[in-house]
Amino acid sequence: MVQVKEIFTSIQGEGPYVGYKQLFIRLCGCNLKCSYCDTEFGSDKFKEYSVQELIDICNKNPDCHSVSLTGGEPLLHTDFIKEFGCKCNLLIYLETNGTLSNKLREVIDYITYISADIKLPSATGLKPMWEEHEEFFEVSSQKELFAKVVFDKNINDFEIHKISHLCKKYDIELVLQPMMRGKLPVINSGFMQEVLNKCLKIHTKTRLIPQVHKFIDVI
């Protein structure tokens, strides 16, 4: 059994697969507590599912591009992912905070796509995790991987340098994602363009993609 916050179908609203229909399984629990996190995990706000129950739900949604295991942090549930991955008829799209490389090693054979965050101290309020992210990319670069970076007005040139060179080293796409408040970014378009241009000078595989699902008002 695994604790699930919610299950729903919608479009992917973030990153290079934006617009694809996905089945989202939001698992409970996280090893981090980012200041901008908008997911509420109360002790009584989940439902337990067996692997077979979730497989049955996947089988009812064959038109989905993939099943997104999101959270929270899905890699806290490696035993579930192993069993689920053996039986699932949909491709697995892992949305992760990109800090648990040892956990990823346990399940990487079952994953097709990896959306890995790079957590900026200026945005999260957390300590720097550059080493954790690099170790994670070392493991995950064998898969279809991209990095997603939430940023606000406090992003600095040191962080821009670090994220750009890290993604360039592993030749992965860097997706800049402006922090949102409701349906609107917390920063103006001029600043977004400035950050994008600074990254592009270092790493040409950089894109600016806001959370599209919020603009069009879908879950």
Describe what this molecule looks like in 3D.
By secondary structure, the protein is an alpha/beta fold. It is built from 8 helices and 11 strands. The radius of gyration is 17 Å and the shape is globular. It has a single domain (about 1-215), classed as Aldolase class I (TIM Barrel, Alpha-Beta Barrel). It has helices at about 50-60, 80-85, 100-105, 120-125, 130-140, 155-170, 190-200, 210-215; strands at about 1-10, 20-25, 45-50, 65-70, 90-95, 115, 145-150, 175-180, 180, 185, 205-210. The strands form 2 sheets. A 9-stranded mixed sheet has the order 3-1-2-4-5-6-7-8-11. The mean pLDDT is about 95.
Give the tally of β-strands. 11
Order of strands, main sheet, comes to 3-1-2-4-5-6-7-8-11
What is the assigned CATH homologous superfamily? Aldolase class I
Helix content range = 25-40%
Portion in strands: 25-35%
* Bulk shape: globular
Kindly identify the CATH topology.
TIM Barrel
User: N-to-C SSE series?
Assistant: EEEHEHEHEHHEHEEEHEH
Total count of helical runs of at least 4 residues = 8
In the CATH scheme, the class would be Alpha Beta
Q: State the secondary-structure class.
A: alpha/beta
| Rg (C-alpha, Å) | 17 Å
User: What kind of sheet is the major sheet?
Assistant: 9 strands, mixed
Rounded to the nearest angstrom, the distance between the terminal CA atoms is: 25 Å
Q: Could you tell me the mean pLDDT?
A: 93
Level-2 CATH architecture: Alpha-Beta Barrel
Count of the domains:
1
